[in-house]
Amino acid sequence: HSFPTRRSSDLCAEEDLIVTFERLFSEEYGAAQTLTALALEALDGAQRLEALRAALERIGALPAGAGVDHVRAIFEVFRVNTQTVYHPADPAMLPFTLLLAQDTPDEAERAAMVEGWSRLGIPDVRIVPGSHTTMTYPPHVEVLAQRLRACLAAC
Prior knowledge:
With 155 residues, the protein is mainly α.
């Protein structure tokens, strides 16, 4: 498996996206960034994916045993998220549960997140341990799963 084949004019965008992805994880984990667009330019899709996996493993951003398939999956979610723009014309303003990471850098950022989500409905804010990234890995993922189960049971 590798990244989809792209026209040469698209390679820079993908390389920049991979570098951005690694930078976000490096900042999250307090590690130095190692990937550059220039270095990635010489690699094919499978090699770029392996370079990203190695970089994420080096900084401790992958769960034990995570391989290339895991990295491909999280990178594809990131890629789609960067291309997604959601502007509902008429939000329903219904209540929903908003799970926020405890390690959000500061109260102002947390307040801005809640304000943004409040434009789409009425959030019931619940704090979960970890950061936006680490809440999906052990040991924090167990608490996240418990909160999600409780939300689904209440529906």
